[in-house]
Amino acid sequence: MGERLNIKGDDRLAASAGAAAVAVALMLAVAKLWALRETGSLGVAASLADSAIDAVASLAGLAAVLYASKPPDEEHAFGHGSAEDLASLGQAGLVALSGLLIGWQAIRRLLLDAPPPLAREELGMGVMAFSIVMTLGLVWWQLRVARKTGSPVVVADSLHYLSDLLPNIGAMAALAASAWFGISDLDSLVGLAAAGLLLAGAFRVARRGWRALMDHGADAKTLRRLQEIADGHPGLSGYHDLKTRTSGRRLFVQIHVELPGDLPLREAHDIGAALRHRMLDAFPDAEVIVHKDPV
C-alpha cells in the first residue's frame, strides 16, 4: 500500500485531505467539549456531536482511501475503489444519526416551560469562531483535493464540513442572543435547523455512494465528452454500446467501434488503440476497453 502511495500523487492528495480532516475534527471536538461544559448550549452540543462524528467518519474515510489505492489483484481485478463508496455510505449513516439525535434534543428543549439558561456565552462564541476559521481552512484544502482526485470520500467530507459552517454560525448567534438579550429559545431553534442540514447532507452523500455501488453510469458531462472523442475519431465507420460505470475515483469505459471488414488487423488495432489513448488523455484514471466490430 505504501509503495502505491509513493507512486500515485492523487492517492497522496486524497490521504492528506483525510488526515487533515481527522486532525481538525479531533481538535474541534476537544475545544467544543470544553465550551459545552462551560456554557450548556444545545447549539454547541450539536456542533460537538457533529465534530465527534466527523472525526470517526474522516478516520474511516482515510482508511478507505488508503485501501482503495491498492492496485488490482487476483481477487479484485477491477481494483479496490468501491471501498471509498462504502465509506461514504457509512459517513452518511453517522451524519443522519447525529442529525436525528440533535433534532430530538432541540424539540425536547423547545417543549420545556423553562429551558435551562446558558452560561459564559462569550467563551462559547470564541470557541465557535475558532471552529469556523479552522473549518474554512479544511474545506478549502478538501475542495482543491476533490477537484484534483475526484475522490467520493473527500467530496463527502468536504460537503459535510461545509454544512458545519451554518450550525457553527447559528450557535454563535444563539450564544450572542442569550448573552446580550437573554433569549435562550434561539439555541434550540439553531439545533433544530442544524439537524435538518445534517439529514439533507446525509441523503446527498448516501445517494452518490449508492449509485456508484449499483454500477450507475458516469455523469452526463463525462458521457458527452466520451461521445465527442468517439464521434471525431478518424477511421471509424461508427460505434455503439458505449457503456460506463464508476468505482470510487475510477471510471470504467467500454465501447464497440465499427470498422471496415477488409481492414488489416494491424490498422484496426492502431485505430482502436488511438481511440483508447485519446479517452485516457481526457480521463487519466479511467480503464477503457475498445471492442472492434467489422461493418
Search tags:
Alpha-Beta Plaits; Alpha-lytic protease prodomain-like; 10% strand; mainly alpha; 3-stranded mixed beta sheet; disordered N terminus
Question: What is this structure, in a nutshell?
Answer:
The protein is mainly alpha-helical and 295 residues long. Helix content is 72%, strand content 10%.
Question: Which helices and strands occur, and which strands form pairs?
Answer:
Blueprint: H1 2-7, H2 9-39, H3 42-68, H4 82-110, H5 121-149, H6 152-181, H7 185-213, H8 220-231, E1 238-247, E2 250-259, H9 265-282, E3 286-294
Parallel strand pairs: 2-3
Antiparallel strand pairs: 1-2
Protein model, in words:
The protein is mainly alpha-helical and 295 residues long. It has two domains: 2-213, Alpha-lytic protease prodomain-like; 220-294, Alpha-Beta Plaits, CATH 3.30.70. Helices cover 72% and strands 10% of the residues. It contains nine helices and three strands; from the N terminus they run ααααααααββαβ. It has helices at residues 2-7, 9-39, 42-68, 82-110, 121-149, 152-181, 185-213, 220-231, 265-282; strands spanning 238-247, 250-259, 286-294. The chain has a three-stranded mixed beta sheet. A hairpin with a 2-residue loop joins strand 1 and strand 2. The protein is elongated. The two termini are 45 Å apart. Residues 1-7 have low confidence and may be disordered.
